[in-house]
Amino acid sequence: MRIVLTRQPAQAGHIEAGLEQLGYHIDFLPLTDFQLPQHTATLDAMVEGLHNGIWQRVLLTSPNTIRALIARGWDPAHTETRTAIAVTGPGTARVLYDYGAQHTPWMPQDDASAAGILNQFPPGPGTIALPQGAAAGSAMRTGLSQLGWCVTHTVAYQTVDYPADPARALLPAHSDALKPEDLTDDDVVILTAPTAARRWAHIQVPVRAVVAIGQPTRRVAQQAAIELAATAASPDTAGLAAAVDRL
Q1: pLDDT tens readout for residues 115-133
Q2: For residue 91, what pLDDT band results from cuts at 50, 70 and 90?
Q3: According to the model, what pLDDT value does residue 154 have?
Q4: Quick check: helix, strand or coil at residue 210?
Q5: Chain-centre distance of CA 40, in angstroms?
Q6: How far is CA 200 from CA 69, 219, 221, in A?
Q7: In the chain, which ranges are E strands?
Q8: Are the CB atoms for 103 and 80 separated by under 8 Å?
C-alpha cells in the first residue's frame, strides 16, 4: 500500500517524515499549485511596510504566504525587530525560520481553524498586516476587526491547477511527482486541502481509498460527492496514521 499526498514534494514536512518512519511508502500527486498574483503592487507595498515597521503585528496564515512575501524581497529578520509576527501553526513557523526569522512567533495552542485562532488571538486596538491567498474568505479579516484591530489585507498568492506559471510559481517543479495515470488500485490518496479535494473531484481515478486530512477538506469533498474512506482526526502524522490504519 502506498500513501499518496495531493501536494508537491517541496511541501513535504513532518507529516511525511513521520509516516515514513512508521513504515509507509509515501509519494506525491500535485493537484494544485501556487503563484504570485499577476499584479504585485499591493504585495510589494506590504513588504515595504513590513520593513518599515508600520504595523504592530503581522499574521501569516500559511507557508505559501511567507514564500510569496519572500519572492518579493521580504526579510523576516528585519521585520521581527519592529513588528510582532504571528503564525497559524508549527508548519508555518518552520518556513518562517527557514527564511531567517530568529524570534518565536505567536501561534494558537491547539485549534488552528479561523475560529480557534480568533478565540486565542490578542485583542486590539492596534494595526495588523494580513497577507493571504486569493481563495481565503473574509472570516479572518472580519474576526480581527471585531477584536479591535485595524486590518490591512492584501492578496499574496493564487491557488491554481498544477502546474503554476513558471514565471510566477512559488514552489520548484519536481519531475518525479506522480500524475493521475500513475495511480493504482492499491494507493491511498490523502486530500491535503479543500482546493485539492475540488481538483480531485474532476480527475478521480480508481484507488484503494481516499482520506481527507481534516474537517474543512472533508466538507468540500462531501460537497463534491467524493467518497471518503476516512477523515483524519488531526492534520498530523498521528491523525493520518490512525485514519489509514482503520482502512
Answers
A1: 889 999 999 999 999 999 9
A2: confident
A3: 98
A4: strand
A5: 20
A6: 29, 14, 9
A7: 2-5, 25-28, 32-35, 57-60, 84-87, 126-133, 149-161, 187-191, 209-212, 230-231
A8: yes
Amino acid at 245: D
Length of the chain: 247
Could you tell me if 153 and 65 are in contact, meaning their C-beta atoms sit under 8 angstroms apart? no
Q: What cell numbers appear for 128 in the block?
A: 495588523
CA–CA separation, 241 and 24 (whole Å): 9
Q: Reduce the DSSP state of residue 189 to 3 states and report it.
A: strand
Task: Determine the pLDDT at residue 35.
Answer: 98
Q: What is the DSSP string of the chain?
A: -EEEESS-GGG--HHHHHHHHTT-EEEE---EEEE--S--HHHHHHHHHHHHT-SSEEEE-SHHHHHHHHHTT--HHHHTTTSEEEESSHHHHHHHHHTT--SPPB--SS--SHHHHHHHSPP-SEEEEEEEETT--SHHHHHHHHTTEEEEEEEEEEEEESSPPTTTBSS---TTS--GGG--TTEEEEE-SHHHHHHHHHH----SEEEESSHHHHHHHHHTT---SEE-SSSSHHHHHHHHHT-
Peptide bond into 163 cis (omega under 30): yes
pLDDT (tens digit per residue) in 144-157 = 999 999 999 999 99
The DSSP bridge partners found for residue 149 are 126
At 101, list the grid cell.
526569522
Q: Which three cell numbers stand for residue 201?
A: 473531484
Element (DSSP H or E) covering residue 216:
helix 215-223
**What number of other Cβ atoms are within 10 A of residue 137's Cβ?**
9
